[in-house]
C-alpha cells in the first residue's frame, strides 16, 4: 500500500457488522510437558541474556523459512489440546473489540501534518530500499525494532511493500465466505490503514486459516499455506501502529513456532516472547508459553531422546544458547510479574517451583543441595504469604517438600497456617468475586466478565486496606489485559496509582502502555505529559511524547475534545516552563510559538471537522492559557486582544462576560489602594472593566442570562465609578429591564402560539385515554361491567405514543387526568431475605403496612432480595419499621427506593438488559432493569435502571449527555412528574417533508438533489413492494439553516415531471398508534437501486418465504429481532408486539426453511421461541399485564340471593357473580345442548345484553 492513499481516507467498511469469522480448528503444538532434563553439565552462565539483544534475526515480523521443523506435530482431532504452548482456545474475531468504551475507527486527519505526509509519500520508495539494505547488512536489535505507535512515525503507516489494489485470498483452508470477508477487510485497510478493527479481524481470520491448514490440509508443511506471506505482512503492519494484546500475541507466537525451522528462527521466536512479555507483563498465559517453549528448546538441545530431531550442529549451538539458567530467569521474572494475580499466578509459579525442585535433585554436592533447599523453602514461605486461589495446594506441596528434605512437615504446615491466617481471610473476602469472574471467563461471556471485573474493582477500592495496594494494582492489570482498548479502565488505573502515590509501580511505564493501547484517548496522553513534567523530565522527551500523540490523527477522529485535552497539557507545560525559576527568554519564545501552534492546529482541525463556521472551544481553554501567558510576560494588551477576539463567538454567554470582567478587575486591583506612590492623586477607576460590562449589556437581546449581568453592571458602577456613571447606570437598568421584559413577552407569546396545538393533541390523547383500557393502569377503574363490553380490537388500537409513554412513567408533554404511578417514592428494597421467601409471603409480611401493588424478586448467592411497591409514600415509610421484626427469624435490611432509579433513554437500539447493566455497572449494584411495553408504540426507547442505593444512582448520572456509540445518552434520576422537552431533528426544524414525488424516483436521486443545500444526516423514502416509492419522504439535515434553504430552493420546483412540495416537517404525533415497525435489508434495497433492471431473485410466494416468531416479549424492539434474522439473509422484518411476535420475510424459501429450523425453540430474552406463520401470529394475543400489578380489589360485601333466585342459578349461596370462572366441566356445556362457549361468544352475549339494556333505558 502506498502512503499516498493516506491523503484521502475513506470511511471504513469495518464500521459495519462484518460477516462471521471463519470457524476453523485451532490446532496446537504438542507441549513438551514436564520433561526431566538429563545429562545437563554444570551451568556456567552463558552470554545468551546479552545475546538476546544482539543475536541474529530478532525481527518482529513473521519469518520466511525454507523447510519446516520435522519435530513439530499437530493434533488432527476435533478436540485440540490447549496446553501452555498450544494455540489458545478460539475466541470471537472481535474479542479485542469488546471494550466497554469502543475506540474510534481511526482516520487520518487532514491538517498541517498532511504536508509532512505528502513529503513522506514521495520518499517512501527510498525509505523502503534503505530499510531492506540495512536489514541485510545488520540484524536489528530489540531496542531498534519499531513496535509501537508511540515510537513510530507516519512513514510506518503502510502495509509493507506496495501491494496491488486487488489481492487474491483464495486458499484451501478458507471457505468462500471467509475469502470474501478477507477481501472486504483488505479493501478497508487500503482505504484506511489505521482502522484498528479491520487489522484485528484481518490478522485473526488469516491466523485461523493457517491453523486449520496445518491441522487438516497439510499438517507437515506449514509453508504450503497460500496466504502465509499476507499473514506475515498483516502482523507487521498492525504491530507498527497498535500493540497486539494478549490474544493476538498468542496467535502470532504460535504461528512463529510452527514456522521456526532452524536455531536462528527459534532465537527470533524467543525474542518475540521477550517483546510480548514487555507489552503484556501481567499475562500469565504468555509467560507460561514463554517458559514452556524455552523448556522445549532445552530438551531438544540436551536430551538423548529429544521431542524434535535436530542436527548435531544445531544441538551444539542450542546447548550454548538454551541453558537452564536462562529458563530459571524466565520463570522467576514471570512469577514475580504475576504473583498478585489471585487466579492465574499459580500457572507460572507452580512451574517455577517445579523447575527449582528438579534442579535441586540434580545438585552434585550436599552443600549445594542445602543452599538450594533453604532458598526453595524461603520461596514457599513467601508464596504462602500471598493470597491466591490455590493456597491450599501450595501448602500441601510445601509440606511434601519439607518431608522430602527431611524436615517436620506437620510442624511446618502448622506454622504456615498460624502465620498466614490473615492471608486466607484476604482470599476468602474475594472468593465470590473471583468465582463470578472465572465463571464468566469460562463461559466466554465478555459482558458478564466486564461486569464482574468492574464490580470487583469497585469493591476493592471501597474496602482498600493498608496491605491491599498490590492486589488492587494486579486486578487493574488483569482488567486492562482482558479489555486492552477500554480507555476508562486505563484512566481508572492511572488515577488509582496517582492517588496512592506508590513508588513501587512505574507510573510512566503504565502510562506508556496505556497510550499505546488507546492512542485515541486525550485524557491518557494528558496524564502522561503531566506526569513527565511532574518527574522533571527533559523538554525533548516531553515534546516527543506530544508529537507522538498528535501526529497520527487518532485523537480528533471521534471528538476534537481529545485533541484539546492533549494541547491543554502541552500548553500548560510550556507556560509553566517559560516562567520557572532559571527560565530564559528563549523558553518564553518557545512557549509563545507552541501555544500559537496549538491554537492554530485545533482551529484548523475544528473547521475541517465541523465546517468553517465552527465557533471554537466553548470553554476557550487554550485561549485562557494564552491570556495567562501574556499576562505573566507583562503584556496585558496582547492578552486583552485575545479576549476581544473571543467576543464574536461568545458574546451571548454570561459566563464569558463574567470571566472577562473579573480579569479586568484583577488588573485594576493594583491601582485600587492608596499608598505613598499615589498620595494626593485621584485613584484610577476601572474603566476597562466598565467597558467590558457595557459591551455585555449591548447583547441583552440574545444573552443567555441577562438579569445577573444587569445586576453586576449596576453594582459595579455603584462601587467603583463616578456619580455620573452611577446615574447613567440607573437609567440603563430601567432600559435594560424593559428590553428583557419585552423579550420575555415575545418568548411567551411564541410559546402560547404553539400551545393550542399541543393542548389539542393532549385532548385527543385524553379522549383516546378514556376509551382505552390502559388508562386504568394507575387511575380509577371504570365500571366493571363496561370493562368486558369493549372489543379487543378497540383496546389494542386506542392508546397513543404519548399516552403509553405516560403510563410507563417516561417524561412526556402529554397530560392525563389519571394519577401518575410513583414507583420511585412508593417502593422499598428488601435484602438478605431467605431463599424460601416467595411473593405471597412478602405480601403477607407487609400487609399491615399498606396495599402492596407489586413485588419483584431477585435471587442472590445465598439469599433473596425484593423490590416492594406500595400505593403511597406513607406506606413505604411505615414499611421501614418492619426491619426490626425480621422475616421468618432472619435479619433483613429495608431501604427506601427513593432516588435509586434512573430514567435512561437514547441508548443504542440494539441495547438489551445485559448491555444496560454493563454500561452502569461501574457505579454500583443494579437491582432491576425495566423496559416499557412496545405494544402501543414500537418506537419507544427508554428504560428504568434501579440501584441498591441512591448514591450509586446519583453517581451514574455522570453518564448523562456522554457519547455512547454516537448517541448522547440520557441518564437522569427518574421523576414521574418531570416533563420531557421535545428534541430531535423534527423538533429542531432540521427535518424536511417532501411529497408529490415521482413514484419511480429512487433514494439516491433525492439525496443528490437535496445535497446542494447542506450536509444530509439521513434520507427516509418509504417504498412499496415493487420498489417504487410512496410519493413522499423525509430529508434530515445536520443544520436547521440548511433545511430552510432546501425548502426555499426546492418547493414548487419541477422535479421528474412533477411540481415538488417541500416544507419543514412538524412535530405533531400521528393519530394512529405506532403498533408496528419495519426493517428492510439495506443490502437488498441497495442492489435493487443499483440494478433496477435486474431480475427478481426471490422464490416462492411471500407466505412461503415468511416465518413468524412467536412468544417474543413485548419489550423487544425490531433491531434485536434483526440480530436473529441476519445470519439467514432476511429481506424484511415486521415487529408486532401487540401480538407478541414478529414476521421475517426472506429472499428464498430455502432461507426461510433454514431459519425456521435454526430458530425453533431458541432461548431469547428468557423465553423459548416458537416458529409459525402469519396467521398464527395474528391469532396470538399479546401479553397481558395487570395495570396495578396484582393489586387486590377492595372487598365488597353484597347480599346473596336465595338459591334459585339468582339469574341463571349461578349466584346462589353467595357464589361469585358474572365474570367468575364457571365451576362446570366443559362437557356439561355440550351436554346441555350446545358447544362450549368461547370468550368471543361470551363477549357477544354481553354486548347484546348491554344493547338491550340501553334500548330499555331509551
Automatic annotation (TrEMBL):
Chief subcellular location: nucleus
Sequence segments annotated as region (Disordered): 1-164, 747-825, 1070-1102, 1189-1258
Top-level taxon of the source organism: Eukaryota
Signal peptide: none
PROSITE patterns according to UniProt: RRM
GO BP annotation list: mRNA processing; RNA splicing
Biased composition (Gly residues): 1205-1217
Pfam families linked to this entry: RRM_1, RRM_occluded
Compartmental location: Nucleus
Basic and acidic residues bias locations: 91-100, 767-793, 1237-1258
Comp. bias regions, Low complexity: 750-764
RNA-binding in keyword set: yes
Gene Ontology MF: a single term: RNA binding
Keyword DNA-binding applies: no
Protein name: U4/U6 snRNA-associated-splicing factor PRP24
Phylogenetic classification of the source organism: Eukaryota, Fungi, Dikarya, Ascomycota, Pezizomycotina
Amino acid at each position: 500500500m502506498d502512503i499516498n492513499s493516506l491523503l484521502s481516507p475513506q470511511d471504513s467498511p469495518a464500521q459495519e457488522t462484518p460477516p462471521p469469522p471463519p470457524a476453523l480448528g485451532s490446532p496446537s503444538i504438542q507441549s513438551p510437558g514436564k520433561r526431566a532434563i538429563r545429562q545437563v553439565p554444570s551451568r556456567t552462565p552463558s552470554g545468551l541474556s546479552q545475546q538476546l539483544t544482539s543475536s541474529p534475526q530478532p525481527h518482529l515480523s513473521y519469518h520466511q523459512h525454507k523447510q519446516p521443523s520435522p519435530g513439530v506435530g499437530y493434533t488432527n482431532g476435533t478436540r485440540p489440546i490447549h496446553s501452555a504452548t498450544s494455540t489458545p482456545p478460539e475466541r470471537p474475531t472481535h474479542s479485542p473489540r469488546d471494550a466497554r468504551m469502543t475506540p474510534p475507527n481511526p482516520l487520518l486527519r487532514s491538517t498541517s501534518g498532511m504536508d509532512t505526509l505528502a513529503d513522506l509519500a514521495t520518499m517512501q520508495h527510498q525509505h523502503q530500499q534503505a530499510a531492506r539494505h540495512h536489514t541485510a547488512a545488520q540484524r536489528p536489535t530489540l531496542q531498534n525494532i519499531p513496535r509501537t505507535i508511540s515510537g513510530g512515525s507516519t512513514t510506518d503507516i503502510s502495509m509493507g511493500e506496495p501491494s496491488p489494489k486487488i489481492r487474491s485470498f483464495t486458499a484451501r483452508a478458507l471457505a468462500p465466505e471467509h475469502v470474501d470477508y478477507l477481501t472486504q477487510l483488505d479493501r478497508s485497510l487500503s482505504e484506511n490503514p489505521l482502522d484498528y478493527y479491520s487489522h484485528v479481524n484481518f490478522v485473526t481470520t488469516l491466523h485461523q486459516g493457517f491453523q486449520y491448514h496445518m491441522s487438516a490440509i497439510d499438517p507437515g508443511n506449514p509453508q504450503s499455506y497460500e496466504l502465509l506471506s499476507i499473514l506475515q505482512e498483516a502482523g507487521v503492519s498492525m504491530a507498527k501502529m497498535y500493540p497486539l494484546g494478549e490474544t493476538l500475541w498468542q496467535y502470532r507466537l504460535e504461528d512463529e513456532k510452527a514456522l521456526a525451522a532452524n536455531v536462528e528462527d527459534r532465537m527470533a521466536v524467543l525474542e518475540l516472547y521477550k517483546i510480548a512479555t514487555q507489552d503484556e507483563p501481567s499475562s500469565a498465559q504468555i509467560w507460561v508459553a514463554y517458559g514452556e517453549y524455552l523448556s522445549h528448546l532445552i530438551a531438544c538441545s540436551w536430551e538423548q531422546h529429544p521431542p524434535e530431531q535436530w542436527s548435531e550442529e544445531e544441538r551444539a549451538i542450542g546447548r550454548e544458547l538454551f541453558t537452564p539458567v536462562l529458563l530459571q530467569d524466565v520463570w522467576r521474572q514471570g512469577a514475580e510479574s504475576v504473583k498478585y494475580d489471585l487466579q492465574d499466578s499459580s500457572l507460572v509459579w507452580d512451574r517455577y517451583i517445579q523447575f527449582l525442585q528438579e534442579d535441586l535433585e540434580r545438585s552434585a554436592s550436599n552443600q549445594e543441595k542445602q543452599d538450594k533447599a533453604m532458598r526453595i523453602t524461603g520461596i514457599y514461605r513467601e508464596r504462602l504469604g500471598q493470597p491466591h486461589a490455590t493456597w491450599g495446594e501450595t501448602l500441601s506441596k510445601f509440606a511434601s517438600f519439607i518431608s522430602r528434605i527431611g524436615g517436620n512437615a506437620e510442624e511446618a504446615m502448622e506454622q504456615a497456617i498460624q502465620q498466614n491466617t490473615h492471608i486466607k481471610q484476604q482470599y476468602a473476602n474475594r472468593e465470590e468475586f473471583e468465582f463470578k469472574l472465572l465463571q464468566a471467563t469460562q463461559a466466554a461471556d465478555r459482558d458478564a466478565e466486564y461486569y464482574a471485573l468492574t464490580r470487583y474493582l469497585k469493591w476493592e477500592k471501597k474496602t482498600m486496606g493498608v496491605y491491599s495496594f498490590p492486589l488492587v494494582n494486579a486486578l487493574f492489570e488483569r482488567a486492562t489485559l482482558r479489555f486492552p482498548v477500554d480507555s476508562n479502565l486505563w484512566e481508572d488505573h492511572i488515577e488509582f496509582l496517582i492517588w496512592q502515590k506508590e513508588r513501587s509501580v512505574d507510573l510512566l511505564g503504565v502510562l506508556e502502555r496505556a497510550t499505546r493501547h488507546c492512542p485515541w484517548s486525550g485524557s491518557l496522553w494528558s496524564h502522561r505529559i503531566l506526569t513527565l513534567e511532574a518527574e522533571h523530565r527533559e523538554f525533548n522527551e516531553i515534546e516527543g511524547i506530544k508529537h507522538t500523540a498528535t501526529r497520527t490523527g487518532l485523537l480528533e477522529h471521534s471528538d476534537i475534545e481529545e485533541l484539546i485535552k492533549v494541547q491543554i497539557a502541552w500548553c500548560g507545560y510550556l507556560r509553566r516552563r517559560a516562567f520557572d525559576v532559571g527560565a530564559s527568554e528563549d523558553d518564553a519564545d518557545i512557549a509563545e510559538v507552541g501555544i500559537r501552534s496549538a491554537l492554530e492546529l485545533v482551529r484548523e482541525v475544528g473547521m475541517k471537522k465541523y465546517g468553517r463556521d465552527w465557533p471554537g472551544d466553548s470553554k476557550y481553554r487554550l485561549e485562557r492559557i494564552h491570556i495567562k501567558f501574556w499576562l505573566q510576560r507583562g503584556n496585558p494588551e496582547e492578552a486583552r486582544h485575545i479576549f476581544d477576539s473571543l467576543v464574536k463567538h461568545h458574546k451571548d454567554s454570561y459566563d464569558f462576560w463574567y470571566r472577562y470582567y473579573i480579569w479586568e478587575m484583577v488588573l485594576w486591583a493594583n491601582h485600587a489602594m492608596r499608598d505613598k506612590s499615589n498620595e494626593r492623586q485621584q485613584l484610577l477607576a476601572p474603566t476597562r472593566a466598565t467597558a467590558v460590562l457595557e459591551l455585555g449589556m449591548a447583547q441583552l437581546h440574545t444573552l443567555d442570562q441577562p438579569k445577573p449581568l444587569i445586576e453586576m453592571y449596576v453594582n459595579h458602577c455603584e462601587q467603583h465609578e463616578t456619580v455620573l456613571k452611577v446615574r447613567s447606570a440607573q437609567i440603563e437598568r430601567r432600559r435594560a429591564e424593559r428590553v428583557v421584559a419585552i423579550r420575555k413577552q415575545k418568548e411567551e407569546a411564541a410559546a402560547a402560539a404553539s400551545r393550542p396545538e399541543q393542548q389539542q393533541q393532549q385532548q385527543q390523547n385524553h379522549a383516546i385515554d378514556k376509551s382505552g383500557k390502559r388508562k386504568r393502569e394507575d387511575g380509577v377503574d371504570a365500571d366493571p361491567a363496561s370493562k368486558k363490553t369493549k372489543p379487543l380490537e378497540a383496546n389494542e388500537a386506542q392508546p397513543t405514543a404519548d399516552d403509553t409513554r405516560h403510563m410507563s412513567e417516561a417524561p412526556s408533554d402529554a397530560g392525563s387526568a389519571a394519577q401518575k404511578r410513583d414507583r420511585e417514592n412508593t417502593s422499598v428494597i428488601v435484602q438478605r431475605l431467605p431463599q424460601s421467601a416467595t411473593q405471597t409471603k412478602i405480601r403477607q409480611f407487609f400487609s399491615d403496612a399498606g396495599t402492596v401493588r407489586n413485588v419483584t424478586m431477585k435471587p442472590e448467592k445465598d439469599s433473596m432480595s425484593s423490590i416492594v411497591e406500595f400505593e403511597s409514600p406513607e406506606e413505604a415509610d411505615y414499611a421501614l419499621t418492619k426491619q426490626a421484626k425480621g422475616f421468618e427469624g432472619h435479619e433483613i435490611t429495608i431501604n427506601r427506593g427513593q432516588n435509586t432509579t434512573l430514567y435512561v433513554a437514547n441508548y443504542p437500539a440494539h441495547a438489551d438488559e445485559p448491555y444496560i447493566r454493563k454500561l452502569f455497572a461501574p457505579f454500583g449494584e443494579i437491582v432491576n432493569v425495566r423496559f416499557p411495553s412496545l405494544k402501543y408504540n414500537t418506537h419507544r426507547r427508554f428504560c428504568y435502571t434501579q440501584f441498591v442505593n441512591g448514591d450509586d444512582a446519583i453517581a451514574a448520572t455522570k453518564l448523562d449527555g456522554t457519547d455512547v456509540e454516537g448517541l448522547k445518552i440520557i441518564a437522569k434520576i427518574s421523576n414521574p412528574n418531570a416533563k420531557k422537552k421535545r428534541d430531535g431533528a423534527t423538533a429542531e426544524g432540521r427535518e424536511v417533508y417532501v411529497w408529490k414525488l415521482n413514484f419511480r424516483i429512487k433514494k439516491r436521486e433525492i439525496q443528490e438533489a437535496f445535497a446542494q443545500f447542506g450536509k444530509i444526516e439521513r434520507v427516509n423514502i418509504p417504498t412499496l413492494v415493487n420498489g417504487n416509492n410512496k410519493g413522499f419522504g423525509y430529508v434530515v439535515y445536520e443544520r436547521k439553516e440548511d433545511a430552510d434553504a432546501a425548502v426555499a430552493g426546492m418547493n414548487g420546483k419541477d422535479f421528474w415531471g412533477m411540481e415538488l412540495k417541500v416544507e419543514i416537517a412538524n412535530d405533531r404525533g400521528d393519530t394512529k398508534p405506532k403498533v408496528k415497525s419495519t426493517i428492510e435489508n439495506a443490502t437488498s434495497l441497495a442492489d435493487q437501486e443499483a440494478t433496477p433492471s435486474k431480475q427478481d431473485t426471490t422464490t416462492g410466494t411471500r407466505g412461503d418465504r415468511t416465518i413468524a416468531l412467536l412468544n417474543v416479549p413485548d419489550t423487544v424492539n425490531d433491531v434485536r429481532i434483526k440480530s436473529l434474522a441476519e445470519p439467514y439473509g432476511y429481506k424484511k422484518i415486521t415487529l408486532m408486539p401487540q401480538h407478541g411476535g414478529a414476521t421475517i420475510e426472506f429472499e428464498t424459501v430455502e432461507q426461510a426453511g433454514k431459519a425456521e429450523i435454526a430458530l425453533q425453540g431458541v432461548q431469547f430474552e428468557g423465553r423459548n421461541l416458537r416458529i409459525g406463520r402469519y396467521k398464527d401470529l395474528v391469532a396470538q394475543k399479546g401479553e397481558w399485564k395487570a395495570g396495578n400489578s396484582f393489586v387486590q380489589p377492595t372487598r365488597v360485601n353484597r347480599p346473596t340471593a336465595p338459591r334459585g333466585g339468582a339469574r341463571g342459578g349461578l349466584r346462589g349461596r353467595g357464589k361469585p357473580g358474572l365474570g367468575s370462572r364457571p365451576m362446570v366441566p366443559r362437557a356439561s356445556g355440550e351436554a346441555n345442548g350446545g358447544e362450549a362457549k368461547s370468550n368471543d361468544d361470551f363477549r357477544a352475549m354481553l354486548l347484546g345484553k348491554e344493547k338491550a339494556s340501553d334500548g330499555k333505558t331509551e
